[in-house]
Amino acid sequence: MTIIEKAPRERAVPERPGRVARIAEAARSGPALFVAVALLALVVAPLVLEPFRLNLLAKYLCFAIVALGIGLAWGRGGMLTLGQGVFFGIGGYSMGMYLKLNDAGGDLPDFMVWSGVETLPALWEPFRSPVFAIAAAVLVPIAVAAVLGTLVFRQRVRGAYFAILTQALAAALVILLVGQQGLTGGTNGLTNFFELFGQDLAAEETQQGLYFVVAVVLGLLFLLAWQLTRSRFGKLLVAVRDGEDRVRFLGYNPATVKTITFAISAGMAGIAGALFVPVVGIISPALLGVVPSLELVVAVAVGGRYVLGGAVLGAVIMNYAKTAFSEEFAGGWLYLQGALFILVMTLAPGGIAGLVSSAREALTRRRRSRTGPEWTAREAKEAA
Questions:
Q1: DSSP calls for 174-213
Q2: Maximum CA pair distance of the chain?
Q3: Residues 103-115: pLDDT tens digits?
Q4: How far apart, in whole angstroms, are the C-alpha atoms of residue 58 and residue 272?
Q5: Residue spans of beta strands (DSSP E) within the chain
Q6: What residue ranges do the domains of the chain occupy?
Q7: pTM of whole model > 0.70?
Q8: What whole-number distance in Å separates Cα of residue 320 and Cα of residue 53?
Q9: CA distances to 97, 114, 150, 179 from 117, in Å
């Protein structure tokens, strides 16, 4: 006679109240936050901000695009780039050259007439086409970064040496632009733009349209960068940041990974420069040098360089603070900025995003401690 023993029934564990809802909410938190920010930028901001403040916000979002590229290169790839102003300037001057030629209507731009230039330089000729100008604003920074990255990363230059090299490149570009008065406008740069694609740049409708363009471009580039970080390439990029030699021993080429990422961040900076020119109405060497590049790095550090959203948030907050404090303390903003950077790097290396993440983890631990050991064992079993 065969005896069949019944397996003991597993004791049912009551479902924790609201647990499923919290899991679903956590799964949707990223996309939901993106949608909320998009609605705030595309719907609420144009309704509540006056034209002047909306134009300032568009300017901040242009810097946020540059910060997004820095967050990708520095936060994810470990490449501290202090020369993003170079690529920002290439994009800005490409768009500015087209606008000046368009306003001139076939004649020489005004600053060339003042400088005694008699014929249009050959470098300027292709920029009569808006398609060429937009393409150059994106492709030339990518090409320059690709060449520089190939030469530098193959020699295993990294860390502070790479940062100093990019900083020197920014300083060299400023010297070059200032010294070519008849070609680049010298210290004054390119300014006095009046028309873009047949629209008056001084009109409120045009500036509002430019704001929407900048906001949408930032959103698309953010999605692109976010998808990149979640891909296999993004995981490889983090691995290169944390252990470049280990990645090399596994058969991957860290130089290629870093060069591609550096080129993508340069392309983002070029796009930002091209958008910045019609929004603000000027591009000059003062916007491209070492100090502006450092300010962007500080903004990324304050927002949180390990999180793409933190880099964008830091750029907006820091530039808004710069405007607000400059109106009250015109000579003290740089000291406040330096003090803020020191405090953040000392007390919160992860920036604002790191503080938010730490607070969320502390809240999660506190909730788990209240559920008792039974729930702790169950969650550990499910996680395994």
A1: HHHHHH-HHHH-GGG-EE---EETTEETTSHHHHHHHHHH
A2: 113
A3: 888 788 888 888 8
A4: 11
A5: 190-191, 195-196, 199-200, 282-283
A6: 36-191+205-287
A7: yes
A8: 10
A9: 15, 8, 37, 15
